[in-house]
Design a protein that fits this description.
The protein folds into 3 domains: about 220 residues, no CATH class; about 70 residues, no CATH class; about 100 residues, Immunoglobulin-like (Sandwich), CATH 2.60.40. The protein has 12 helices and 18 strands. Helix 8 packs across helix 9. About 25% of the residues are buried. It is found in: Secreted; Bacterial flagellum.
Length: about 500
């Protein structure tokens, strides 16, 4: 801020004069400010595209589209779903074939019932138990704390909220004379081997006060012991502590016993595979649409970034509309975007050479380019044709997307070209997305990069330094103007004083 000492001649307004003069001096700085804003908008526009590039790459990873198992997903159909349901793995790990299952016994939970709670007296105490479940390798220590204000309801709540692994509920039973309060515990895990053992005599006494029976080892005695599920798969007898389990990539859920074997038909999960391919194509089309929008958008040079002074005379809505127009077309015909989009487009349409030297093409499975000009190269899926291809030959579909290797020998050009021909579409696209992202980042950086680390950042850094230097110069110019006009003002004031003195002499 310039120190301003204005005169008192009242001949002219020094602040107003200097302000008008500085507006002229400010013009080069305003131009640089607009340039800076334009560069920042351009940078942000590049980064928007890079975000879409990352979204597509992330989707490929999240859907496991680089894994052969993804294209081998299976579904299982049960002939008696009220007794047995089965699902295949969506990651292709199902290696079982169609067969049957005969369920002779379901897995059940252990139940512990008290004979009545009349012997329970609320008291402050800490009780410790050792809990063993069918799947545990060693007991787990669980502690329960009580107070002398506890009720049976609060005890039941504590049991449910503890790590005992049981569901507790309070009810009433008839003891031959009266209905008395009782507590029942049901283990949350099924199968054999559920055990709750009091760690000391005090803890055992807590259980007996609640009406539970403990044996000589202080273990809670089960009213009903849990049992394992028993079944035959393709005639082979098996058992499991759970009614839901996975075997050979098939997840079974046993719901009831069966009089005869239940048929299980294993087949390709066409819908799951199709949906993943469709998600990939849809996300790719989003990227195509965004790039087309950027490179085809017209530049309106009549709308330049607004200065702070210009914004003062506009409403927020007017500023928003102005800047929306000013931002348009900043990447029109951009070579980085055009090149990146062209490379990925060719990844889809170049023939793929399989391991048996056959050539396959994406159109063979029903994926083609839209014939609508406005779509600008988007892909279109023939759902019927793609689903038929998946059902008829999932291996061919897998080759279409992930044959060959993801990595290419960049040092040997001829070898790299041959490897590219053998690559499936997903492998090609992933590599192209990586290269595309790097080229954008070289130009526009990322939020974690410093200005000096990317092209537009260097331009912004250089421009920022020029602006800073120019702002320092403006301060000197403004100070010089004030010095000059203050001197003029003082001179005029002095002349006015002399004129008044002469007039006074002449008037005598």
């Amino acid at each position: 801020m310039v120190n301003r000492i204005t005169g008192f001649s009242n001949v002219f307004d020094i602040d107003e004069i200097v302000s008008k003069l500085m507006k002229t001096e400010q013009v080069p700085l305003d131009k640089m400010t607009r340039q800076k804003q334009t560069l920042e908008w351009q940078r942000d526009s590049y980064r928007e595209v890079n975000s879409k590039v990352k979204e597509l790459d992330d989707l490929i990873n999240s859907l496991n589209l680089t894994r052969p198992s993804t294209y081998g997903a299976k579904k299982v159909t049960s002939s008696n779903e009220s007794a047995v349901t089965a699902t295949g793995s969506t990651d292709g790990s199902t290696n079982a074939t169609s067969g049957s299952i005969h369920v002779t016994q379901l897995a059940t939970a252990s139940v512990f019932k008290s004979s009545g709670t009349s012997g329970y007296t609320p008291a402050n105490g800490t009780f410790t138990f050792e809990v063993t479940t069918p799947d545990s390798t060693k007991p787990k220590t669980v502690t329960i704390n009580t107070t002398d204000t506890d009720t049976l309801d609060s005890i039941v709540k504590q049991l449910n909220n503890s790590q005992l692994g049981v569901t507790a509920y309070k009810g009433q039973i008839f003891d031959g004379t009266n209905y008395v309060d009782t507590i029942a515990l049901t283990s949350r895990t099924t199968g054999e081997g559920v055990s709750i053992k009091a760690a000391d005599g005090n803890s055992a006494s807590f259980l007996t006060q609640l009406g539970f029976q403990v044996d000589g080892d202080n273990k809670l005695v089960a009213t009903t012991q849990g049992q394992k599920a028993q079944y035959e798969i393709n005639g082979l007898k098996m058992e499991n502590n759970n009614n839901t389990f996975t075997q050979a990539g098939i997840t079974y859920e046993l719901k009831g016993t069966t009089d005869k074997p239940v048929s299980l038909n294993v087949s390709t999960d066409v819908d799951t595979i199709f949906d993943k391919i469709k998600q990939f194509v849809d996300k790719y089309n989003e990227l195509v649409e965004q790039i087309n929008g950027k490179v085809n958008e017209k530049r309106n040079r009549d709308y330049q970034p607004l200065t702070a002074e210009e914004k003062k005379g506009m409403s927020d809505k007017e500023v928003e509309l102005w800047e929306t127009t000013a931002k348009s077309g900043l990447l029109r015909s951009d070579s980085i975007l055009r090149s990146g989009a062209s490379k990925i487009r060719s990844d889809f349409y170049a023939d793929i050479t399989t391991s048996d030297a056959n050539k396959i093409h994406i159109t063979q499975i029903g994926i083609t380019t839209s014939d609508k000009y406005k779509d600008g190269g988007k892909l279109v899926i023939d759902e019927k044709k793609l689903k038929e291809a998946i059902e008829a030959d999932p291996q061919k579909v897998s080759q279409m997307f992930i044959s060959g290797s993801l990595n290419v020998d960049s040092k040997d050009k001829d070898k790299a070209q041959q490897q590219y021909k053998e690559q499936g579409i997903i492998h090609r696209v992933k590599n192209s997305l990586s290269a595309f992202s790097k080229s954008i980042q070289t130009k526009a950086g990322s939020t974690t990069m410093e200005l000096k680390e990317y092209g537009l950042g260097k331009d912004l850094d250089s421009l920022g330094k020029r602006m800073s230097t120019f702002q320092d110069r403006l301060k000197l110019v403004e100070a010089r103007y004030y010095t000059k006009f203050n001197a003029m003002d003082s001179a005029i004031q002095k002349l006015n004083n002399q004129s008044g003195y002469l007039s006074q002499l002449l008037g005598q």
